[in-house]
Amino acid sequence: MEYDYIIICVQADLEIFNQLLNMGIKKDKILIASILFSDRNLFYSQNNEDAIVIMLLHVLKLTYSDITYLELGTNHPVNLNNTYGLYRLGACGVLVEPNKDLHNFIEAIRPRDILVKKAVSLDGNPAEFYNLKSNELSTLSYDKLDKDFCDTIESFKLKETYLVETITINELFELTREVPDVVSIDIEGYDYAVLNQINFRKHRPKIFIIEMGAWGAKEQDGKRIKELLLKNGYLLFHNNGTNGIFIDEKYRESIRQYIVNKY
How distant, in Å, are the alpha carbons of 89, 182, 202, 207 from that of 57? Predict the structure, then answer.
């Protein structure tokens, strides 16, 4: 029997999606029934960072269909994702993900977004990509991972390495027609170095979500990220120990009543 479409829930393992492709089923014949996954889910980030960002954008009185984002290190397009909540509300943007295992999955679930199938680097030259069995920690900077930790968990062990094309943060800004409202950065060890390349006089996103202290990240990197953004006119609105949310200080008065913690 030939089927017109195969419907899978977005909750299904990425492996199932890729198995269907390997069986010769075309990507446009696989429908992702995201409503099955998200009926009870309003927010998708690791620690509800997207809830805070959505609240801030609402306070700034922005229309969701006009909101844009740039996400460096997309990984899974829904689970633990910082921009999927915005996508569901009507926003769209640019997703950057070098892991070839994820490309078809991302494009199937996020068709309104532009997917850049490259890694973010400092020089734009091809680089070695270290793909771990669990995609969350895949990286260009393998030397910065806690290898003793990764080797104790089977899903975090190194699966393969391969060469990928890369792009710089400023080249990504040139790809967008306007500066994105939200920039999410989670690129396992390169977060501070890439952030430090931004020309903040030319490119000023309203909000940054950036990893400041998770596995494989140096504590000092989080401190440097905070200092860099404060120096360039951003306020640290929220820090949960893993990710920080910064907002342009020109919106200080608009958000003043919502500031409950000082970091």
Answer: 12, 9, 21, 9
The one-letter amino acid at 200: F
Strand, coil or helix: what is 110? coil
pTM score of the predicted model: 0.83
Assign residue 251 the CATH number of its domain: 3.40.50.150
Q: Give the model confidence (pLDDT) of 132-184 as tens digits.
A: 876 676 777 666 565 556 666 676 777 888 899 999 999 999 887 789 999 99
Count how many Cα atoms sit within 13 Å of the Cα of residue 153 in the half-sphere of its side chain: 10
Q: In this structure, is residue 101 part of a structural domain?
A: yes
Phi, psi of 145 (to 5 degrees): -75, 155
With beta carbons less than 8 A apart as the criterion, state whether 191 and 225 touch: yes
45 and 26 fall within a common domain: no
For residue 22, which amino acid is it? N
Buried b (16+ CB within 10 A) or exposed e, 43-81: bbbbeebbebbbebbeebeeeeeebbbbbbbbbbbbbeb
User: d(Cα 126, Cα 163) in Å, to the nearest integer?
Assistant: 6
On whether both 48 and 28 belong to a single domain, the answer is no
> Are both 20 and 83 inside the same structural domain?
no
List, for residues 19-44, the tens digit of each pLDDT value. 777 777 777 666 665 544 444 567 88
Amino acid at 36: L
Which range marks the domain in which residue 5 is found?
1-39
Structure tokens at 42: 């309003």
